[in-house]
Structures are given as C-alpha cells and as structure tokens.
Amino acid sequence: MTLEEILTEIYNQGMKIQVYKILHAAVMEDYNKLLNENRECSASLTAIKKINKGRNEAIDALCD
Q1: Of 11, 52, 62, 64, which has the most beta carbons under 10 Å away?
Q2: 3-state secondary structure (DSSP) of residue 2
Q3: If DSSP codes are grouped into helix, strand and coil, which group holds residue 14?
Q4: CA-derived radius of gyration, the chain
C-alpha cells in the first residue's frame, strides 16, 4: 500500500482524529526525550565549567 492509499483509507474510515492523536503522542514523546537529553548535557557542561573555574580557557570555550 502506498502512503496516498493509506491516507485515503484513514480519511474514508473517519479515523483522522485517532491517527492525529497517535502521531502527536509519538512526536511529543520524541520531543520530551530530546529535551531531557539536552538538559542533561547542559547540566554536564555547567558542572565542567564550574570545576574548571577559568583555569583552562580552552575548556571554558568548549563549554560555551
């Protein structure tokens, strides 16, 4: 089945809202996962910068 056939079937069966809710939930799950990973990385960089205390300019530059 092609994408167009699948979308036509979804439309014909009146399943647009159900499909939207499922896809929206999947997108939000991916978004929240990436958001959490980004927060963890940001926290790590902040900790590294605090530990460095300006002693190594290269490390400070990498943390910015």
Answers
A1: 52
A2: coil
A3: coil
A4: 22
Please provide the size of the chain in residues. 64
Q: What is the pLDDT of residues 23-35, one digit of tens each?
A: 999 999 999 999 9
In the three-class reduction of DSSP (H, G, I as helix; E, B as strand; rest coil), residue 13 is classed as coil
Distances from the Cα of 52 to the Cα of 21, 39, 40, 61, angstroms: 46, 20, 18, 11
**C-alpha span between 42 and 53 (Å, rounded):** 17
Three-state SS at 55: coil
Q: What is the pTM of this model?
A: 0.68
The 10s digit of each residue's pLDDT in 5-60 is 999 999 999 999 999 999 999 999 999 999 999 999 999 999 998 898 888 888 88
